[in-house]
Structures are given as C-alpha cells and as structure tokens.
C-alpha cells in the first residue's frame, strides 16, 4: 500500500471520461480542492467541461466548496498514460459499453502507478464482468454516483471477485472523506441498491402508462405531492415504520403482512418469513435509535412543512388542480 | 343535485371514523374553516382526536390554515344518523375491512340526506367492491388521501361502477377547492397510482433484505441521499426525462430501451411498444412545458441545494459515513 497511502494525502485525481457523470465528478473534485487530470478523446471535451463546471460551481459554492478550491485546476489529455501520471486516484466514467470498459481497464492497469485505486462510475456492470482483461485487478472498485455527482451525496461502493478488500475500504474511506454518503456493499448486485429501487418504481410507472391507467403527469404528481414529500428525510423503510403507528414496523408486518400479496403492483412480494420479518423490524428499530414514535412523527411533520414551503418557492408549475386521464 | 350544490357552499362535514386517517382529515377540514361532526364508536375517540388535532395544528398554521378556522368546531357522535344530520359532505375513514365497509355504506346511504356525496379514504378496496349493499350507490366515491392527510396534498379520486360521474366531479372539485392536489382516475386500479408505485419500491426493498443484498439502513439511505433528493419537485418521469440530457425521454427510450430488460429489479418491464414510447415522450414534453433542458437542470440543482440544506437542518441523524452489510 505504498502510493495508495492515506486518503488525506490525495492531491491529484484522474477523471477518465468527461461526459455528464465524469464531468460532474471533476467539478466535485475541484470543489474539494483537488487537481484534476481529465482523459477524454473528444475534441470538444475541454469546452464541454468548462460549461459543465461553470454551471455547477454556484451550486457547489452553496454546499460543498472548500476554501481555496480552484475552479481552473484541471487539464485535458488525449493520452491516457499522460492523464494518469502522478495521480493518487482514478475515477472512470466512460460510456456504458462492456467491451470498451474491458479494454480501458486493461490499459489503465498498465499505465497507472501500482496501488493507485481505480474506481468505475458504472451503473450497469459488475466489476467482475468488467475486469476480465486485467491481470491483477485487485485495485479495481465500483464507485457508483448519482446524477449529478457534484450534488447528490450517494456513492455505492463494491468490489469484484478479484478486488482486494483493502481497495474497497480505501475507496469507501476516500469518498467519505470528501463528503459523500457511502453505501458499501459486500456483494455485487445488478443495479446496486438505489437503481434497483428506482427501477422498480419506474417499471411500474411504464406498465401503468402502457395500460392507460395513469398519465405521465399523474405519475409524477402522485410522487411529488405524495410520498416524495417524505423520502428526502425518511426513506421507504422508516416511512413504513411510521405508518405502523406506535407499534412500528413490527405492527405493520404482523398485521398487514397478508395484504403484502394484494395486487398493488406487478412486482410479486417475497414470502414474509420470520427471518425477513425480524431483519426488517430490527433494522427499523436501529434506524429509529433514541427517537420515539412521537419524535419521528414530529420530525416527519416538520420536514413536510419545510419541504412544501420549499417546493412552493421553487416550482414554476401551476397550482394544484383537478385533472383526468381523458 | 339539490343539496349537493356548489363546493363553495359546504359548511359542515361528517368524518366517519376518527383514527389516524379520519382524525387527520378532521384536522384539515377544521383548518379550512369547516364544522366537523365525527362518528366513532370508541369511547376514547374524543380524547384521541383532541390529541391529534393539538399535534397537527402548529403544522397547519404554517401552511393551510384559513383565518377564522376554529380548532374546536367539532363534536363526536356514536349515533350515525345524528353524526351525518345536516352535513354537506361525508368522508369515511373506517378500518380497512371489506364487510365492515359494505355494512357501513348501506347504513350511510339510508341516513344521509339525498345527494350528499360520500367519499371513502380506503387504500385497499375499489368502490365497486364496497358499494355492493347500497341500493343506488351513485354518490359513493373514493377520495384516497396520503398520511398525514392534514399535510400531504395528494388525493386520488375515482368512482365505482355505480357512481355517477357528477359525484366524482363534485368530489374532485371540492378537494381542489380546499387546497388538495387531486388526481382524478377514470378507472379503478388496485392501490390507485401512488400506492402502486410506492409498493413496487417497497417490495423490491423487502426482496433485497430477504436476500441479504442490503440492510434497512442502506435502503433508506440509498433513497434519502440519492433519488429522494429529486422526487419532491421532479417526479420519476421528469427525472428520467432529464437523465436523457438534451434529447430527453425520447433519447432515453430510443437508446436505452433495450437495457429496460436488464435485471435491475425483480419487476419485469413492459414491452417498449411504439405507443408506450410515444405516450411517455409526449407526457414528458407536456410536463416540461416552456422549460428548456437547461431550465430543468438549473431547477433541479436549485432544488437539490435547497433540499440538502433543509435536510441538514432537520435531521438528527449522524453525518455521512461508510458502512457495510456485515
């Protein structure tokens, strides 16, 4: 672990690919005071990145900008070896093309200094699938951000079969150090966690449009004016925990378990085994911590009030109105 | 339509059932200046409702309270005929028990003045299933709120087979008049719209817990620190429209359509027919209105910035940190 060293010692980062995601990472790294070396074969890469950083900077200034961060501390390179020379970390965000990623990872492995961790922004492939052309592969990690990476805190971190656990730990620690909310997964799951959840909702929505059960506007409004008003501060599990009243998730599962099978979505529910029941209930109890049911209700209400005031001031949409599928 | 009259002329409302949902409706109706007559057979109903209204009132004062609203303008009745006497609208929120609802609706039909619209808060049953014991049934409508009804704007409105379209229109108009965001559905769909979407996400989450792929905390954080930061102001459809860059939803579906079949959730995707593609694209174009791609991006970023500042000030949770399934 010579060069890899402490996450505090990182000074220079290579962003491999500077599209929406790679460019978004570059903006974030700059805001956190790093020097960024960008590899992108496109002749317009520099111009596009300038625009992206210019657009992102005001938002970064509001939240995560460090004193002394230099908006212009980046260079673009078309030569990969040049781009990764002297860097302490690599964030790869090339297009989602498996063959391209495989070749790119082999190239990266041969030009990067030993022990530099190489993280991929992929949302579609596992590291085991992507690192097939790499001889060692123990330093290749998935670090999956959410768009835009300069604003959304979530990063899902997971290794492949050949990845060294220390490389996963290093990446998780580094992202945490720079202010991200890290979910470290101990196994590769297609779509990771957030995309699986998001996709389930999205597919149900497509089915409803397909069957004429709801319009695009109705689907969006059913979220923005409904459960979406809780999800930024209470996730889906804690939301259901609260829906169980003072009995919480245990009450929900023990009493409404059977209705889990009702046809409320096209996604079939799992069997509610004792083990699943307990894992879910325990998780909610841990999440609640010292907060009583009443504390959570008051927190939820304060959150919704603040959120509704916020969305009223933000949105340009027309006031609430009746509509129809017709 | 004699008594039903204009939605502006409603003065008194009966809340049938005063649990979490019925009591939440009562609090909202009081805040909007109505007199509320509560029917609830429980001897503790009055005390429980006092507590609920006391808890809700500060939040109502922040958002929807009308001048002159009287927090104490309610009475509790154990006799149904007495409770609905002289009221202009009935909101039923009895427990989710089909037989109970069927009997209750027959009773309500016999004691309510003709033409008074009777709306049910049910989340689980269709009006066609519930109104079987009612002779006419043309005034029975579903008006499905979200918890807590005194804060969440969404109300899904739909009739049953026997419901008169004018009764559905009246209910939709009334909810809109009192400040709700109404989604009027033209057919009965189990779980309506928001619950179908919410349930798909919830079931995917249960599957992940069941398979040891994610913990409760990871699931909640993957939403609160990820897509949940967009959903209060851009619903899932507009979020994907934006993810398509300047090409929007058309680009998304035309280019990433095939990956719709990738195993990112246990919910199978629909066939991406030309018709589904066009309905989805057109809906997003309508939703975007005059807003350009750049307008939407700036709106999204301003929203996330404000939202993250808000959640930082609201939440009592620990700062972002690395974790593991172990």
UniProtKB/TrEMBL annotation, chains A, B:
Residues annotated as domain 3-hydroxyacyl-CoA dehydrogenase C-terminal: 191-274
A matching Pfam family: 3HCDH
Transcription listed as a keyword: no
Pathway noted in the entry: Lipid metabolism; butanoate metabolism
Residue stretches making up the 3-hydroxyacyl-CoA dehydrogenase NAD binding domain: 12-187
Keywords annotated in UniProt: Oxidoreductase
InterPro entries: 3-OHacyl-CoA_DH_NAD-bd, 3HC_DH_C, 6-PGluconate_DH-like_C_sf, 6PGD_dom2, NAD(P)-bd_dom_sf
Keyword field contains Oxidoreductase: yes
Family: Belongs to the 3-hydroxyacyl-CoA dehydrogenase family.
Protein name (Swiss-Prot/TrEMBL): 3-hydroxyacyl-CoA dehydrogenase NAD-binding domain-containing protein
Taxon lineage: Bacteria, Bacillati, Actinomycetota, Actinomycetes, Micrococcales
């Amino acid at each position: 672990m010579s060069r890899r060293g402490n996450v505090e010692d990182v000074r220079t980062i290579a962003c491999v690919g500077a599209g929406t995601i790679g460019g978004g990472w570059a903006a974030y790294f700059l805001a956190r005071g790093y020097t960024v070396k960008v590899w992108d074969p496109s002749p317009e890469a520099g111009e596009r990145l300038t625009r992206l950083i210019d657009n992102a900077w005001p938002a970064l200034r509001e939240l995560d900008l460090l004193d002394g961060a230099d908006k212009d501390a980046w260079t673009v390179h078309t030569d990969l070896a040049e781009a990764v020379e002297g860097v302490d970390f690599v964030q790869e965000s090339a297009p989602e093309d498996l063959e391209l990623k495989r070749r790119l990872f082999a190239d990266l492995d041969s030009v990067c200094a030993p022990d530099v961790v190489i993280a991929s922004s992929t949302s579609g492939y596992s590291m085991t699938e992507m690192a097939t052309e790499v001889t060692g592969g123990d330093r290749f990690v998935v670090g999956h951000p959410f768009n835009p990476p300069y604003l959304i805190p979530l990063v899902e971190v997971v290794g492949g079969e050949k990845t060294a656990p220390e490389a996963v730990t290093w990446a998780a620690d580094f992202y945490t150090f720079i202010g991200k909310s890290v979910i470290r997964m101990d196994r590769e799951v297609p779509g990771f966690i957030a995309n699986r959840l998001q996709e389930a909702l999205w597919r149900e929505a497509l089915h409803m449009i397909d069957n004429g059960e709801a319009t695009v506007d109705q689907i969006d409004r059913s979220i923005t004016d409904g459960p979406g008003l809780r999800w930024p501060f209470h996730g889906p599990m804690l939301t259901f925990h609260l829906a169980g009243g003072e009995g919480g998730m245990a009450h929900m599962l023990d009493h409404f378990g059977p209705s889990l099978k009702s046809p409320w979505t096209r996604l079939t529910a799992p069997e509610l085994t004792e083990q699943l029941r307990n894992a879910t209930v325990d998780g909610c109890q841990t999440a609640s911590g010292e907060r009583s049911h009443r504390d959570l209700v008051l927190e939820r209400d304060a959150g919704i009030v603040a959120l509704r005031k916020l969305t009223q001031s933000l949105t340009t949409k027309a006031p609430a109105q009746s509509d129809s599928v017709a």
